[in-house]
Design goal:
Elements (H helix, E strand, L loop, with lengths): L1 H60 L11 E2 L3 E6 L4 E9 L31 E5 L5 E5 L3 E4 L10 H6 L6 E4 L1 H22 L3 E7 L20 E8 L4 E8 L11 E2 L1 H8 L9 H8 L9 H4 L15 E3 H4 L8 E13 L5 E5 L9 E4 L11 H4 L4 E11 L2 E6 L5 E5 L1
Parallel strand pairs: 12-13, 15-17
Antiparallel strand pairs: 1-2, 2-3, 3-8, 4-5, 6-7, 8-9, 9-10, 10-11, 13-14, 13-16, 14-15, 16-17, 16-18
């Protein structure tokens, strides 16, 4: 009997030994899951702690002054004052934190009413109608306007809660689709690009120019007002820089930097006292600046704004309007600043007007066989000069280009 008991114990021991590695693996995998869950919870707590720090900083440094009739509504990473007559915010203030550099959260698109606005906000039916068709799929009847973010969702892509809150209708304003998706988006991208380069926070306030006589979305349930202009102001307290932008609610015909202005000018236009908590000296310094080269990579590298059309002679075009002349086979005058001039590998000469390679928007091309028609070296003669060239506009690649044969086709506007 003892022999059989011994054999049975030996058999059971072998089974337990065989199971031990499997049990150990299961325990390790479970520990990993527990650790991941704990890490996820910890990361969420870190994000909430950052939100509190940044929002407290926004309250300290980034909010405009308000009057007795106004109430500031605070969310995780943005604050606003709502204008009930216009059914949109008078202004929205937020911080673009350097945390966006490592942010990976995607758009949530969860548009909804802002529960903190006691008078109610705009709703989906103010912008379009959604009807379920016979196949159970939604059909959309749009009113022609985008729900344009004032504080862009991409500025919060490191915080799921803050990004989601950016879809409150209190943060929306009617924008022309091409403006929202191209011109306004380019401005938003520029400010995020600044944070990427400088690794500093920006304190931003945004709004539409709200007046009593604005047109409204006629089909909207609450007659949402349509701003004809939008503004954005921003300060960098680390480098002591400030800038503002004023853009028409339309597809921009000029580069973003063309719409730069001072914060003082936006204060005069809107009556809003921005960054009221700062010391008088610092506020005055920041709000009087308009140094675009500090804010745009391209400008810092020597690019310039296209020449103002109203300052040019009649029937002369700047590089933006001149782009439309490409392929029409008419001889025209195109004016701009030579920001780069060079001799190509084949010996030809190329000018970039206003913006240099690889961001060029307009070129001038001189074939090497025609260089004899210039009294001096055009590569050095015209660099940094404002010139007008006369000729037919073609293209090199996708860039509009005037081909010229001699010096008589170039006039210098300013030595």
């Amino acid at each position: 009997m003892r022999f059989y008991q011994f054999i049975l114990c030996l058999f059971l021991s072998n089974i337990l030994l065989a199971q031990a590695p499997s049990a150990e693996l299961e325990n390790l995998e479970q520990a990993l899951k527990d650790n991941q869950a704990e890490q996820k919870l910890l990361l969420k707590k870190i994000t909430k702690a950052k939100e509190k720090i940044w929002h407290n900083d926004l309250k300290t440094n980034g909010l405009p002054a308000i009057n007795e009739q106004e109430t500031i509504i605070h969310h995780s990473m943005m604050s606003l004052v709502y204008s009930e007559p216009h059914e949109q915010a008078k202004w929205v203030a937020h911080v673009i934190s350097p945390d966006i550099i490592n942010g990976t959260i995607a758009r949530s698109n969860d548009f909804r009413k802002d529960p903190k606005v006691e008078t109610g906000t705009a709703i989906e039916e103010d912008y379009f109608l959604r009807v379920i068709n016979k196949n159970g799929e939604p059909d959309y009847d749009g009113f022609g306007w985008d729900r344009g973010h004032l504080a862009p969702s991409a500025d919060f892509r490191w915080s799921a809660d803050a990004l989601s809150e950016s879809y409150f209708y209190s943060n929306m304003s009617p924008q022309v689709p091409d403006f929202n998706r191209k011109s306004w988006s380019a401005l938003e991208n520029s400010l995020r690009g600044y944070v990427y380069r400088e690794k500093v926070p920006l304190y931003v306030v945004t709004g539409g120019v709200l007046t009593d006589d604005l047109p409204v979305i006629e089909r909207s349930t609450q007659k949402v007002a349509i701003p004809q202009q939008f503004w954005k102001v921003a300060i960098d307290l680390v480098n002591k820089r400030g800038i503002a932008f004023l853009m028409p609610n339309a597809l921009a015909t000029y580069p973003t930097e063309h719409y730069a202005t001072t914060i003082d000018e936006i204060e005069k236009l809107t009556g809003i006292d921005f960054y009221a908590a700062l010391s008088d000296d610092l506020e005055e310094k920041l709000e009087s600046q308009k140094i675009t080269k500090d804010w745009f990579n391209a400008v810092a590298l020597g690019d310039v704004e296209p020449l103002a059309m109203h300052l040019l002679p009649k029937k002369h075009f700047n590089t933006i309007i001149g782009q439309r002349q490409a392929g029409n086979n008419k001889e025209v005058h195109i004016c701009g600043t030579v920001v780069r001039s060079r001799t190509t590998r084949k010996g030809n000469v190329m000018f970039n007007l206003d913006k240099a390679y690889p961001n060029e928007i307009f070129n001038v091309f001189i074939n090497k066989d025609n260089l004899i028609n210039f009294p001096n070296n055009p590569v050095t003669d015209y660099l940094d000069q404002q010139i007008c060239v006369y000729g037919t506009v073609g293209k090199i690649g996708n860039v509009p280009t005037v081909y010229i044969d001699g010096g008589k086709q170039i006039n210098t506007l300013r030595p």
